[in-house]
């Protein structure tokens, strides 16, 4: 990883790893590098699930994946900000989440969910912090740590999600 990228400032911390800025030594493009510790089942699943859904225009593009003995390194595009960090008018928020008419090319959260389901991936932790707005204004989903692969007809049971967003009855 360090042969191809300059690792920079610390951005954030998650349950299984941290995120730092990194810059490609070859093209100079900046990414947010998610460093995930190996040995945790959710880490392996996140890498697999992100690779399954990364072809959709509404999913943060995975630019590079690398690993060493201790960690996986996921480098998705970095030119997006969480909808939580910007003021988003209600009409824009509705268009980001809702289903779009076929003639309207905007990507919605619902279309990304369907794309994942078509590829056997269920995105189980969609929240404002994982809905990003690219500099182009396009919506992108990020963070597939709680996503799970499943087969047609299979059922999921149990409560999953970020504690601040889980319904109180769970």
TrEMBL record:
Residues 5-170 form the Protein kinase domain. SMART domains: S_TKc (SM00220). InterPro entries: CDPK_Ser/Thr_kinases, Kinase-like_dom_sf, Prot_kinase_dom, Protein_kinase_ATP_BS. GO terms for molecular function: ATP binding; protein serine/threonine kinase activity. PROSITE patterns: PROTEIN_KINASE_ATP, PROTEIN_KINASE_DOM. ATP binds at residue 34. Keywords: ATP-binding, Kinase, Nucleotide-binding, Serine/threonine-protein kinase, Transferase. Pfam families: Pkinase. Gene3D superfamilies: Phosphorylase Kinase, domain 1 (3.30.200.20), Transferase(Phosphotransferase) domain 1 (1.10.510.10). PANTHER family: SERINE/THREONINE-PROTEIN KINASE. Belongs to the protein kinase superfamily. CAMK Ser/Thr protein kinase family. CaMK subfamily. This is SERINE/THREONINE-PROTEIN KINASE. It comes from Salix purpurea.
């Amino acid at each position: 990883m360090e042969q191809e990228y300059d690792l920079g400032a610390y951005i954030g911390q998650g349950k299984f790893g941290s995120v730092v800025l990194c810059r490609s030594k070859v093209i100079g493009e900046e990414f947010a590098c998610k460093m995930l510790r190996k040995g945790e089942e959710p880490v392996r699943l996140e890498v697999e699930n992100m690779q399954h859904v990364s072809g959709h225009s509404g999913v943060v593009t995975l630019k590079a994946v690398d690993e060493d003995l201790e960690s996986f390194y996921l480098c998705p595009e970095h030119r997006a900000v969480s909808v939580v960090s910007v003021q988003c008018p209600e009409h824009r928020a509705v268009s980001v989440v809702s289903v779009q008419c076929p003639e309207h090319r905007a990507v919605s959260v619902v279309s990304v969910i369907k794309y994942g389901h078509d590829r056997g991936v269920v995105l189980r932790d969609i929240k404002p912090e994982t809905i990003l707005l690219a500099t182009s204004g396009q919506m992108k989903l990020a963070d597939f740590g709680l996503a799970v692969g499943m087969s047609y007809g299979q059922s999921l049971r149990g409560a999953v999600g970020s504690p601040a967003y889980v319904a109180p009855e769970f």
